[in-house]
Design goal:
Length: 336
């Protein structure tokens, strides 16, 4: 019996498995359930004298482990050589292209907008998406019960209570103006890119969440003409010199006077050859906002604006429906 063990051990040391057939022969010879030579020895273990049984059993198991290891190693080796022989013999053929990811068109547009304003000396500020009623409305001169609050359908998280005056998803990036002015005294020149939420009906140009870039410039002697100039330069940079824009009077509680900017969206299929799309609200910061933050509104004036990133992306790329930006359909996304 011990002879058998030695013999098999010697054979395993000599064995050299080179092909699939040799591998199969090896496996059957030593390990098959019915006639494998190592399997036969395993079956003999119960018949061995009790005194020798343990040592014998151990040796047979060592052989089994070695043989199984050889089968595993040969199988991996043969599979990998087979794979490498699948390589086309003409190595000069062009390879297959990998699909690499790209930035989402909203991110790309955001970065472009931020770059433009950085060139004008604006720095980037940030604020929370979960906001309180005071920052989102009250501090921006929306008195309680004021109808202007309805201009922005709000997603409330908690109604006003003893601890706070209401928690909500911010409806615009304008509350960050307040947060910045609490920390920083003029001169202040910041932009705030960020996500905002509205509980409003969804259409081709409005979605329940979207992105804005807020801007605020507060210093001595800042005028509406400065604002108009900046927004003209901005539109020409982002849309091209032939952009058609209009500056239209409007109303916001936190600016006086206020204006909106529309861009002409050329569309030959439209009866009038296109339509106006509003991209931003703006105006001169209302003195009430400054006074509430203890900033001298006699000394300092400023302008502010808030623009919709999605609308700008739609105009730039001719995207007809804002919802496409949120569906994550690769056939759409891979066009950018
Ligand atoms: N926050 C306004 C909105 O979302 C847009 C806006 C208007 C922002 C005037 C401003 C501003 O900073 O001055 O509708």
């Amino acid at each position: 019996m011990v002879d058998q063990l030695e013999k098999i051990k010697g054979e395993l040391e000599q064995a050299n498995i080179l092909t699939g057939e040799e591998l199969e022969e090896f496996r059957i010879r030593y390990l098959s359930k019915k006639q494998g030579r190592i399997t036969e020895l395993l079956k003999l273990i119960p018949t061995i004298e009790p005194a020798d049984r343990k040592a014998f059993g151990q040796q047979v198991n060592v052989l089994k482990t070695i043989a199984e290891g050889m089968v595993g190693e040969a199988r991996t080796r043969l599979e990998s050589t087979q794979r490498s022989s699948d390589v086309p013999s003409d190595l000069t053929l062009p390879g297959s292209a990998f699909d690499t990811g790209t930035l989402h068109v909203i991110t790309e547009t955001r970065n472009e907008i931020v770059n433009i304003f950085e060139r004008y000396g604006f720095t980037v500020a940030d604020g929370p998406e979960l906001e309180d009623d005071w920052h989102n409305f009250t501090a921006l001169n929306f008195p309680p019960e004021h109808p202007a609050r309805d201009m922005q359908d709000t997603v409330f998280i908690e109604p006003p209570g003893d601890q706070h005056d209401g928690i909500l998803m911010r409806t615009h990036t304008s509350p960050v103006q307040v947060r910045v002015l609490k920390e920083q005294k003029p001169p202040v020149r910041v932009i705030v890119p960020g996500r905002v939420y509205r509980n409003e009906s969804i259409s081709y140009k409005s979605y329940c969440l979207f992105h804005q870039v807020e801007g605020l410039y507060l210093d001595e002697g800042v005028s509406m003409a400065d604002l108009k100039h900046l927004l003209h330069m901005f539109s020409r940079t982002i849309f091209g010199d032939d952009v058609v824009m209009r500056f239209r009077p409007s109303f916001f509680p936190f600016t006086e006077p206020s204006a909106e900017v529309d861009i002409w969206w050329k569309d030959d299929s439209h009866p009038e050859g296109g339509r106006w799309l509003e991209i931003l609200g703006s105006g001169m910061v209302d003195p009430n906002v400054l006074d509430a933050l203890d900033i001298d509104s006699e000394k300092y004036t400023g302008y502010a604006f808030g623009m919709g990133i999605e609308r700008i992306a739609m105009l730039k790329h001719g995207i007809p429906d804002i919802r496409l930006l949120y569906e994550n359909d690769l056939r759409f996304l891979s066009q950018f």
